[in-house]
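Q: Now give one record:
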Amino acid sequence: MSSPRFVTFDLHTSAVGPNGVFSNLGALQNLPRGIIRMVQPYLRVATRVQPGEVYGRVHLFADSGQSGFAPVTQQASLWSGYVHTEDATTAPTCPASFPNCWIEEGQAIIFDGVTGSFFLAAGEREIHCKVVVDTRPLEDPLPPTGAFIHYVPPGSGPGCISRITAANPAAGTDVGTITTPARVLRKYRSMSISLVTSVVVGNRVLRLRFRSSAALTRAEVAFPVVTASNTAQLSGYLGADHFTEAGNPSKSAPFADILMEAASDIDFTTNGLDALDDYGAPEFEVEEWAVPSL
């Protein structure tokens, strides 16, 4: 048996920004015959990227395609999961797969995936994948090996936590609909918004409807009443198991603990809203997972 000769390949994307799709069709075409020893995606960035922001997949194909066409016969998944940096001050790392599988000359590896809404908007945005192949001549037999494939399902584990602010609505109008972006799953962890009411007597009740992408209401939250001539602070958050009302200016409500898919939304409706009532811009804390089209 000949001695192993390890060859390291580096797949990398072109620059990709928030809520994007990346793929390297044919990046590792016509591989040499041998054994795939390791597959490890990673990021080279100066800013910390949280789990949940980038979902990548590495596939082995039986053919490399012809005349520039992409490979079409997928044989195996070699790595699937979230690519992230653990510490911005050190070399970024991610879990690796150790497939230890034979490949024949001419096969191909493809690295693809998606980014979430909060992925880096500027600077170094390439996503890399290291592939180590132990090249072997045709006469070598298959050596004994053990295999481990890293796999994390889309939408699992900790997500990327960030804050978003919606537009400040005009007086007498509700906040506009908040829509979940494409290629993500999102959980709304908390919300805070102010409401200044006019002198017109009446009760104002803010209702939030969490709707599916088909506009079906999946959950509804109604906040405590706000009366006339007040500046109220309304807040909703996960983990609250009851409504609270610490005086008229401060009110909170339990939030719906559900995952919102792409194109789902939160609809704002205020019963009894006066033409001079005025909402501030709402701020949400959200947890988000980039997910491929499944």
